[in-house]
């Protein structure tokens, strides 16, 4: 079931990104492989941990294009092994993450069967909040607009 967020657009300002994210979550709700975590390391650093047991670094591709981080995995040659039970999935996959503005991928590494992707938000100086001086009549000063008697 899909929800239409259009009525909420009329009464909100600056929350358009929130509705885009909600729509994205709704679209990808059925995608469950490979499992992953997203962790906030500190205010401007994040880490995505993806469980990739059975994959090696040359079987995984990580790309970033226009605020979309794409992770693709494709197993190389097929094993000629006979399995009595196969619980570790090695199927091909493609998972995409939408990155917020000014978030950059700083690196990726395999560690204990997890692919760890390091992200950092780097807000340009021009985008950071700054205090604006307000000029005008100070306290105790009263200015009067000139008016002519009718």
TrEMBL record:
Q: Which UniProt keywords apply?
A: Stress response
Name the source's superkingdom. Bacteria
- Keyword Metal-binding in the entry? The reply is no
Q: Name one Pfam family in it.
A: HSP20
InterPro entries attached here? Answer: A-crystallin/Hsp20_dom (IPR002068), ACD_IbpA/B (IPR037913), HSP20-like_chaperone (IPR008978)
| Boundaries of every SHSP domain copy | 27-137
Similarity field: Belongs to the small heat shock protein (HSP20) family.
Name this polypeptide is given:
Molecular chaperone IbpA
The taxonomic lineage of its organism, from the top, reads: Bacteria, Pseudomonadati, Pseudomonadota, Alphaproteobacteria, Hyphomicrobiales
């Amino acid at each position: 079931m899909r929800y239409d967020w259009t009525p909420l657009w009329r009464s909100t300002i600056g929350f358009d990104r929130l509705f885009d994210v909600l729509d994205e979550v709704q679209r990808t709700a059925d995608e469950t492989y490979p499992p992953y975590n997203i962790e906030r390391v500190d205010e401007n650093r994040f880490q995505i941990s993806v469980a990739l047991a059975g994959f090696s670094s040359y079987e995984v591709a990580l790309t970033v294009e226009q605020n979309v981080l794409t992770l693709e995995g494709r197993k190389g040659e097929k094993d000629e092994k006979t399995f009595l039970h196969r619980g570790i999935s090695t199927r091909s996959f493609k998972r995409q993450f939408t990155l917020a503005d000014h978030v950059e991928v700083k690196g990726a590494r395999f560690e204990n069967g997890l692919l760890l992707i390091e992200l950092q938000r780097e807000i340009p100086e021009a985008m950071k909040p700054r205090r604006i001086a307000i000029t005008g009549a100070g306290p105790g000063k009263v200015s009067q607009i000139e008016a002519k008697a009718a």
